[in-house]
Design a protein that fits this description.
homodimer; alpha+beta; Arc Repressor Mutant, subunit A; 2 domains; two-stranded antiparallel sheet; 4 helices; about 30% helix; DNA-binding
DNA sequence: TTCAGGAATAGGAATCATTCTTAAAAAGGC
DNA sequence: GCCTTTTTAAGAATGATTCCTATTCCTGAA
């Protein structure tokens, strides 16, 4: 993993506060939740600065962008691979520690104290058409086409 | 599963066309993809009618609202539980037939012809705080609070 | 059949998360 | 300090979805 002093990014004070705040949290905040916290330390920061930095930091692997459901994207200061639980009522997201995986079938995760209702499994890959495109070097994730 | 003639919904012509179109598709369209198709048969239908009906039809179990990642929600005419693959390049979503599950570790799904890169697993449930609220009958999924 | 009341619709405005734009400020190297 | 490049604040723009409202459509009781 890239360390803070090895990035190609300039370590501005805003950037530093965003990383510190995110890494200090056990939760997995959305950009605007983080914005509210960061603003306490740096009142003139703007929401787009938070968004831009989260993307960039995720881009060089200093933090993790979570690919979960819900209407808002969430970010994680812990870049190790691990699973998550999402609360169906309030949307909060927590880690599932690997030692808790055994609990899951019982419907309650003792370690994280969630009542487990189910899970969602989604495979990711390239469809027949895009496999060819990717092989030819055509870029991944072009802008989704506009509706005609 | 509820059949078409058992719903509490009036079976309007718009509703009928939406269900028929969705059930006739092997893909898992977004609301606007479906809108474009439905519009060919019923040119005066509006996008909000499509959205509203998809929600209602999913609400009574006639169709399935897919809880996948990506910037647009997708809907499935097949209400049986099954897994999905999402193309990382174009966003297309296909079914993973249960007989294809054995293929997945090999990185290619023969039956669906996807190149499989990975998967996303997300557990769902109620967090400690919400467990109590749910037990007291407080509603699930209140409007997410506005940012202050 | 007719008609009143509820349900559904078209069309567009509003909302919300996210991305983009631009001019000004800050970093780093020299 | 000076120059070049990166980053920032602020707000506009975008895209998906939801909401609003006046109108139209059903349905069932009279």
């Amino acid at each position: 993993m890239l360390e803070l002093d090895e990035t190609p990014l300039r370590m501005t004070s805003q950037r530093k506060v965003i990383i510190d705040e995110l890494r200090g949290l056990r939760t997995h905040p959305t950009a605007d939740e983080l914005f509210l916290r960061v603003r306490k330390k740096r009142p003139r920061i703007s929401l787009s600065t938070v968004y831009r930095n989260l993307e960039q930091l995720a881009g060089c692997g200093l933090i993790q962008k979570l690919d979960l459901c819900g209407s808002q994207r969430r970010y994680d200061g812990d870049t190790a691979a691990h699973h998550h639980v999402r609360c169906l009522r309030c949307g909060r997201v927590d880690d599932i520690p690997s030692e808790a995986m055994g609990d899951l079938r019982k419907g309650v995760c003792k370690t994280c104290d969630y009542e487990i209702i189910g899970y969602r499994l989604e495979y990711l890959g390239f469809c027949p058409r895009c496999r060819k495109q990717v092989r030819r070097g055509k870029p991944v994730k072009p802008k989704p086409r506009k509706k005609g």
